[in-house]
Design brief:
313 residues, alpha+beta, Pseudouridine synthase, Archaeosine Trna-guanine Transglycosylase, Chain: A, domain 4, ten-stranded mixed β-sheet, four-stranded mixed β-sheet, 9 helices, 18 strands
Length: 313
């Protein structure tokens, strides 16, 4: 009997900025990229709905240690809202519930948009991956079960009217983590008195990352393995918004052994008035990323997440 050998994957470290196409799940896109790179370890930084397109940062190897930072980061979206039509899912996946006529001016829309800037409360949709008793809400929804959901506070940093061509409304949204753009579109429609649902959604920014250096799945698949590897950004691409601290060789060894280091300063002014601030840490001699740490106002550096130095060289 012929013995079956498992395909051997290899260590791959870095970040792929994928421009996800419509109709593809985030998990599927990650699986394709992981297989093409033959990578041992991979993860994404928060999913996009299959009908949504745009920026999906994929993390490989050591970069997966910092994926949570992007999960917590602000996001930027462009969305097209169909006014006058309400659906069961607040997007094109659901059935039409109600249809109303739309007779609005851009001025009226702008007045309503003002209500949704700043801190607002949203009720998470039933068609979402949030779990209740270990089961995603969308599974309850598929069974026709509607559960009570508590409103959650989110922040809309910016909400811009890009275009209004009745009954279609295009908006640009800069928001905090946990914001449901489908719910935002539906709530705007409700406030306008005509109802609405989302017909297009594109994510253009995640934290400090944007679509400028992204690549589509089709383009990535067409490249050779060597070319695919070159499209990966370094691990610290996820950390560019953090202040930097650089250490001597002696302090590098102490840091990598988990020791707290007193008397440290970051480049520029201390990043926070509070006790601790997250910073990225490098070995000064060759600028190799060592990891992230907390720097308190006394100048004490406490290691948090370390990177294997050999993977950064």
């Amino acid at each position: 009997m012929k013995r079956q050998f498992k395909h051997q994957r290899v260590p791959v470290h870095g970040v792929l900025l994928l421009d996800k196409p419509e109709g593809v799940s985030s998990t599927y896109a990650l699986g394709v990229a992981k297989r093409l790179l033959n990578a041992e370890k991979a993860g994404h930084t928060g999913t996009l709905d299959p009908f949504a397109t745009g920026l999906l940062p994929l993390c490989f190897g050591e970069a997966t240690k910092f994926a949570q930072d992007l999960l917590d980061a602000d996001k930027i979206y462009e969305a097209t809202v169909h006014l006058g039509v309400t659906t069961t899912t607040a997007d094109t996946e659901g059935d039409i519930v109600e249809t109303k006529s739309v007779d609005l001016t851009p001025e009226q829309i702008e007045l309503v948009l003002q209500q949704f800037r700043g801190e607002i409360k949203q009720v998470p949709p039933m068609h979402s991956a949030l779990k209740r008793d270990g089961k995603p809400l969308y599974e309850y929804a598929r069974e026709g079960v509607v559960l009570e959901r508590e409103a959650r506070e989110v922040i809309i940093h910016a909400l811009e009217l890009v275009e209004f061509n009745s009954p279609y409304l295009k908006i640009r949204v800069h928001c905090s983590k946990g914001t449901y753009i489908r719910v935002l579109g539906e709530d705007i429609g409700r406030a306008l008195g005509c109802g609405a649902h989302l017909i297009a959604l594109r994510r253009t920014g995640v934290g400090s990352l944007d679509l400028q250096r992204s690549i589509t799945l089709t383009e990535f698949t067409a490249l050779s393995l060597a070319e695919q590897s070159k499209t990966l950004l370094p691990v610290d691409a996820l950390l560019v918004s953090l202040p930097a601290v650089r250490l001597s060789e002696e302090l590098t060894q102490r840091f990598l052994h988990g020791q707290r280091l007193p008397g440290m300063v970051c480049e520029g002014a201390h990043p926070a008035d509070e006790a601790d601030a997250l910073v990225r840490v490098y070995r000064a001699v060759d600028d190799v990323l060592l990891g992230v740490a907390l720097l308190d106002v006394r100048g004490v550096l406490s290691p948090q997440r370390l990177v294997s130095v050999s993977t950064s060289e």
